[in-house]
Design goal:
The protein is α/β, with parallel strands linked by helices. It contains 15 helices and 13 strands.
Length: 402
């Protein structure tokens, strides 16, 4: 039996006037999703425990079958595992975004122009972070390069004062009301700004019409988690495929293989074909399970790009779900697929929402009467899973169809 989860990050949305009062998913042309959903179990899934925020960390843990109330210790420790940073017990890690701050004057008067520094390329970001490390790093402070705008800060013996706000939650807003209450963290952010505003790479980016990486923005703190093995929990050998360190880190910490794909970006220009082929290769080479994560719809939601979000969904359907399912149909084994977002990222707000997400699960051994796939049909199907982390076990054990 083969199992594939297509995790379409942030795909769920609200109805939009530009799509004739339809969501991007409703408006998108998705013949492959609809074909399988018409023969599948369809419903809605709560991925965010009441005490936690709807971050991709919490939500993907839920979809992977891990109760965030038990396993979640922060976002950045998951990303640390992906880039090979083994946190000590006395260390606290943080996500450090490279962001673009606009305006003039004191740091407090600036505006969050872009939470991703214009989707900065990994090679450029690596050079900037390495240079920044020469200024920030000491025995208690370490900064490490990650992917694109997503980087890692590690502090020793640190207890954080106050909440740290994700930069994608405050796009286009003055930062004054959202700055860290923690004096040490705020000092590091300000120090990075002073260093980076005249950095040669940034001056060149501005000259070429690109957004500069003008500061780090620190958030997503946590300690090293203790994760149970995915194989021990569910009895299947698996891999994760993703462009982002967060998902790679979850895979590594749960004993799965993290597969790298050339040309993946986490956005609409990602290598969709390469992701599909990597999934097929993993299944051909002995994996029973693949968790295939695609970030593009979420990034389009954060950037208020309705047309691109619709296009991202269509590309997932055409270039990922279609080829993988054609392989599964012809591989000679029974198979099951699960298609779901981790959380909604509505175009209207540009940030994550804690509302339940639409999912469908198809099994070649247990075809049933479903519907086309979107938020409304999933809601009307009547199946609601309050504890989102329970879905994975029911999917892998085929209990959904009993």
């Amino acid at each position: 039996m083969k199992y594939v989860v297509f995790l379409c990050d942030g795909m769920a949305d609200l109805k939009l006037s530009e799509f004739g009062d339809k969501t991007p998913l409703e408006a998108a042309h998705t013949p492959n999703m609809d074909n399988y959903c018409k023969k599948a179990i369809l419903g809605t899934l709560k991925t965010v425990p009441d005490r936690l925020s709807p971050g991709s960390d919490v939500c993907n843990l839920s979809v992977m079958g891990y109760d965030s109330d038990l396993y979640y210790s922060g976002r950045s420790p998951l990303e640390a595992a992906s880039i090979g940073v083994n946190l000590a017990d006395h260390e606290t890690s943080f996500r450090a975004n490279l962001v673009t701050l606009s305006g003039e004057g004191a740091y407090e008067e600036l505006v969050m122009e872009d939470y991703s520094a214009g989707e900065i390329k990994t090679a450029d970001a690596k050079k900037i972070i390495e240079d920044l490390a020469s200024v920030l790093n000491n025995e208690e402070t370490k900064i490490y390069a990650g992917v694109s705008y997503r980087h890692l800060l590690v502090l020793s013996d640190k207890e954080v004062v106050g909440n740290l706000i994700p930069p994608h939650d405050i796009s286009k807003r003055p930062v004054k009301e959202y700055l860290p209450k923690d004096a040490e963290i705020l000092s590091l952010m300000k120090k990075s700004y002073e260093f980076l505003k005249n950095h040669p790479y940034n001056l060149e980016r501005i000259k070429n019409g690109k957004k500069p990486a003008s500061s780090i923005w620190v958030w997503g703190e946590g300690k090293r988690p203790n994760m149970d093995s995915f194989y021990d929990k569910f009895g299947v050998k698996g891999s994760v495929i993703s462009a982002v360190d967060l998902i790679k880190g979850i895979g590594i910490l749960t004993g799965m293989r993290s597969i790298d794909v050339e040309g993946v970006t986490g956005n609409i220009d990602t290598n969709f074909d390469g992701k599909a082929q990597a999934c097929i290769d993993a299944l051909q080479n002995g994996d029973d399970f693949v968790y295939l994560h695609i970030e593009a719809p979420d990034e389009c939601g954060h950037r208020f790009e309705a047309d691109n979000k619709k296009l991202a969904i269509e590309l997932i359907d055409e270039k990922v779900i279609g080829p993988v399912c054609r392989y599964l149909e012809g591989c000679g084994e029974d198979f099951a697929i699960l298609v779901t977002p981790d959380h909604p990222t509505p175009i209207s707000t540009g940030t994550h929402d804690r509302a339940p997400v639409p999912f469908f699960a198809y099994c070649s051994k247990h075809e049933t009467a479903g519907d086309v796939y979107n938020e409304e049909t999933a809601k009307q199907a009547g199946l609601y899973m309050e504890n989102g982390y329970e879905l994975m076990g029911q999917f892998l054990n085929l209990e959904l169809w009993k």
